[in-house]
């Protein structure tokens, strides 16, 4: 029964704008991040006192601007989304309200958007910065009853055939997915529209333009009836293996309405695994032009009917059968949103959305029924394996579903890492919505999380089904549990909770560090360093027997917490010069340097925390140690050259250089190149002597080739074999084993030869090796 009178109906309609010119003007105003107002010049100072700024001055008036409040900006952003989706009936004021009972009690609506088929009522909540949401229990407890009353009003205004959806929209607010507020929204048959939804719809509008409305309605009204019109299509039913399929033709407009694309986005997380990329706008435009020019696609679009008990497809076979095992008949399809998942052919289908043949052409379809997302993913990957390369982010995202049940341990661990990263981004912790997953681009890349989980020790390493024993200590994954799925889920829970606890420590106790983008924590370099550090501390405490695999999560975090507090306090106390030096590090290896910085800060407060890689790093920063190693290296090389040339002359007399002809030619070429370089650089140097151009590999070749040769009648001669056979613990039987030290020496030479660089340096063990070789020569 209606309860609006004529005046009430008029009042509501007057607050809904349908005039295109006024809508465009409102759109421009709402799209601007600032409020704009023209005021008399005499009032400018008063406006400045109220927080306004001058944008442009005119003769008698001044245009002022003021940044919108974060709530006002959010409301305007959502309003603009509906305008961009094609809605041309929208509220024009911020005080729009609808009665929900005969007592004329009203509920304020931030946005109302109306087209021929749907009405959306939107309530907006927002925060200036990301945070946990307060409780909305009071207003949501009564939401269902209010919506029922508002529904009657909408039916009275726009007719009973229109679809209605109430949207509870939030920005920068993390609602507990299992909390009472979400339950109230679901019980009210409303839609929860969070940051992920907003971002996804923006992407839809960007990529699908005016065609985005189809996917949008499928998202919001999934599995709800579009209308009561029946869809009955003649089909051929067949079998492939044990899977039933249907072949038919359908109008693009109809398939667009009942179709849905499982894009790789967190807005579709309840459907995981999802697998589709957003389509390419330029390609879509080209396809529409191709169709309108008479072009067509003879290959079929592949779909899966995602029917449930309420919306189930029904095949009615014809009374007679031909000679084929296939059946012909009528397929009855529920006229419901998002009932047909598009596995392959989204570009072809959406190319029709803006075509003049949208309602008159029919397109071929192969339809499967009841495939779960894993099977759809498998078909998609099979079809597209030779198509455009999958992006690293999308590939990492898909790995969970491709490898989760793999027979190989290394593949399962890859799937587990993928799953952990997605849980970190999707759970209501400090990293919520901060990680780029699939098609969703965010503050942090998923790649450093993957790299950190590999290096951290929180998970073991494996090759095929062989685990690396050195990576088991401190691992939160029990390699002895043969119930792989159970163990993967346990490990995921432990690791996600530990990492979330550590990031929440930063957010709650060191907010200035957490809130600073591209700083030591919320950055890609910082991600790798921080998560690897968490695992490294866990391994250290396990070796100290303070933690075990069975330690509960709260105790584990409590043990690690003091080390992280030392780190964060140390970051706050970094000198301006040191901070600038670290933040300016770029390129490969910068993340490792940040990890070493983090470890060294903790080591200052806890000297017992001194992991081997930190010890190694400190040694390589020790200038005195580098000078010692460099001195040994230079002397070894001098001794090698002097001894080799002397021996060659003793063996071959003045023809010695002919015995090493190829090496001489190479040295002459190097000398000429050196002379050319000096000339081009304007250096007035003497011509280079080819005998100064030997390298270590040349020496090794000469030694091996002339290994045991001696001059005649010289009993005091020391052969290359006698001089250069040095046991370095790599075997000492064959010639190659006896000169193995030369290859090692050559690799170390690259470390001590770069005097001005701290990238390639020696540790203590390497200097001791050089000392051993040096002592062997001078003894």
Strand order of the largest sheet: 14-18-15-19-13-12-17-16
Q: What is the number of helical segments per DSSP (H or I, 4+ residues)? A: 31
- Total discrete domains: 4
Shape: elongated
Number of strands: 21
Strand content: 5-15%
Helical fraction: 40-55%
Distance between the termini: 110 Å
Name the average pLDDT.
88
Compute the CA-based radius of gyration.
36 Å
Low confidence ranges:
271-275
Q: Which secondary-structure class do the elements indicate?
A: alpha+beta
Describe the secondary-structure layout.
Layout: H1 6-14, E1 16-17, H2 20-31, E2 34-40, H3 44-49, E3 53-57, E4 61-67, H4 70-84, E5 89-91, E6 97-99, E7 106-108, E8 111-114, E9 118-132, H5 137-141, H6 143-158, E10 163-174, H7 180-187, E11 191-193, H8 195-208, H9 212-220, E12 231-240, E13 243-250, H10 252-258, E14 259-260, H11 281-292, E15 301-305, E16 314-317, E17 327-333, E18 340-344, H12 346-351, E19 363-369, H13 373-384, H14 392-403, H15 409-426, H16 447-455, E20 462-463, E21 466-467, H17 484-509, H18 511-514, H19 524-543, H20 553-572, H21 576-583, H22 590-605, H23 612-620, H24 623-652, H25 656-659, H26 661-680, H27 696-705, H28 720-724, H29 735-738, H30 740-752, H31 764-778
Parallel strand pairs: 9-10, 10-11, 14-18, 15-19
Antiparallel strand pairs: 1-5, 2-4, 3-4, 5-8, 6-7, 8-9, 12-13, 12-17, 13-19, 15-18, 16-17, 20-21
Helix pairs in contact: 2-4, 8-9, 14-15, 15-17, 16-19, 17-20, 19-20, 19-22, 20-22, 24-27, 24-31
């Amino acid at each position: 029964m209606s309860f609006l009178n004529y005046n009430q109906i008029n009042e509501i309609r007057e607050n809904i704008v349908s005039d295109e010119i006024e809508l465009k003007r409102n759109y421009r105003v709402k799209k601007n991040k600032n409020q704009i107002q023209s005021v008399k010049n005499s009032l400018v100072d008063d406006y400045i006192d109220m927080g306004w700024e001058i944008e442009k001055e005119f003769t008698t008036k001044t245009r002022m601007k003021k940044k919108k409040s974060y709530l006002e900006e959010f409301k305007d952003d959502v309003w603009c989304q509906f305008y961009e989706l094609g809605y041309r009936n929208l509220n024009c004021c911020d005080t729009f309200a609808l009665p929900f009972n005969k007592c004329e009690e009203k509920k304020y609506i931030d946005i109302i958007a109306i087209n021929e088929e749907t009405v959306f009522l939107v309530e907006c909540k927002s925060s200036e910065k990301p945070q946990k949401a307060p409780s909305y229990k009071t207003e949501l407890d009564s939401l269902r009853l209010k919506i029922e009353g508002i529904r009657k009003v909408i039916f009275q205004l726009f007719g009973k055939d229109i679809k209605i959806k109430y949207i509870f929209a939030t920005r920068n607010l993390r609602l507990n997915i299992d909390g009472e507020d979400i339950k109230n929204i679901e019980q009210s048959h409303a839609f929860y529209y969070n940051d992920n939804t907003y971002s996804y719809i923006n992407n839809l509008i960007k990529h699908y333009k005016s065609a985005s409305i189809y996917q949008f309605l499928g998202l919001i009204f999934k599995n709800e009836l579009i209308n009561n019109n029946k869809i009955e299509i003649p089909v051929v039913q067949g079998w492939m293996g044990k899977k039933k399929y249907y072949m038919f033709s359908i109008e693009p407009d109809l398939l667009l309405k009942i179709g849905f694309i499982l894009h790789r986005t967190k807005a579709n997380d309840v459907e995981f695994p999802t697998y589709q990329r957003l389509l390419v706008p330029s390609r879509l435009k080209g396809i529409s032009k191709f169709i309108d020019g008479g072009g067509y696609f003879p290959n079929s679009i592949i779909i899966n009917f995602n029917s449930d008990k309420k919306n189930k497809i029904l095949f009615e076979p014809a009374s007679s059968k031909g000679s084929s095992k296939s059946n012909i008949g009528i397929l009855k399809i529920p006229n419901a949103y998002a009932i047909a998942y598009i596995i392959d052919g989204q570009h072809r289908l959406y190319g029709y959305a803006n075509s003049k043949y949208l309602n008159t052409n029919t397109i071929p379809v192969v339809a499967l029924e009841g495939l779960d997302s894993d099977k759809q993913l498998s078909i998609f990957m099979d079809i597209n394996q030779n198509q455009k390369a999958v992006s690293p982010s999308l590939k990492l995202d898909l790995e969970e579903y491709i490898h989760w049940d793999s027979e190989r341990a290394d593949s399962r661990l890859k799937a587990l890492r993928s799953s952990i990263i997605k849980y970190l981004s999707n759970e209501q912790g400090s990293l919520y919505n901060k990680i780029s997953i699939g098609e969703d681009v965010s503050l942090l890349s998923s790649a450093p999380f993957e790299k950190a989980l590999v290096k951290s020790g929180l998970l073991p390493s494996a090759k095929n089904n062989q685990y690396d024993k050195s990576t088991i200590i401190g691992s939160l994954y029990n390699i002895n549990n043969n119930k792989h799925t159970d163990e993967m889920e346990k490990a995921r829970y432990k690791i996600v909770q530990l990492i979330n606890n550590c990031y929440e420590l930063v957010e709650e106790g060191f907010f200035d560090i957490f809130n600073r983008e591209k700083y030591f924590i919320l950055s890609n370099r910082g991600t790798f360093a921080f998560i690897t550090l968490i695992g490294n501390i866990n391994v250290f405490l396990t070796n100290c027997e303070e933690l075990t695999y069975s330690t509960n999560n709260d105790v584990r975090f409590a043990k690690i917490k003091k080390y992280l507090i030392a780190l964060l306090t140390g970051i706050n106390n970094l000198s301006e010069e040191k901070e600038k030096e670290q933040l300016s590090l770029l390129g490969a290896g910068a993340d490792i340097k940040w990890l070493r910085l983090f470890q060294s800060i903790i080591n200052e407060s806890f000297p017992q925390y001194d992991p081997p890689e930190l010890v190694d790093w400190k040694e390589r920063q020790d200038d005195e140690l580098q000078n010692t190693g460099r001195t040994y290296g230079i002397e070894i090389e001098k001794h090698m050259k002097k001894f080799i040339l002397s021996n060659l002359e003793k063996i071959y007399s003045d023809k010695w250089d002919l015995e090493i002809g190829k090496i001489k030619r190479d040295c002459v070429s190097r000398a000429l190149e050196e002379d050319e370089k000096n000339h081009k650089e304007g250096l007035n140097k003497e011509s280079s002597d080819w005998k100064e151009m030997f390298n270590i590999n040349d020496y090794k070749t000469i030694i091996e080739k002339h290994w045991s040769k001696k001059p005649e009648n010289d009993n005091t001669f020391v052969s290359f074999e006698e001089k250069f056979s040095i046991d370095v613990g790599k075997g000492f039987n064959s010639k190659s084993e006896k000169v193995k030290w030369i290859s090692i020496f050559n690799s170390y030479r690259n470390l001590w030869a770069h005097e001005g660089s701290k990238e390639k340096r020696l540790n203590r063990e390497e200097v001791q090796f050089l000392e051993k070789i040096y002592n062997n020569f001078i003894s």
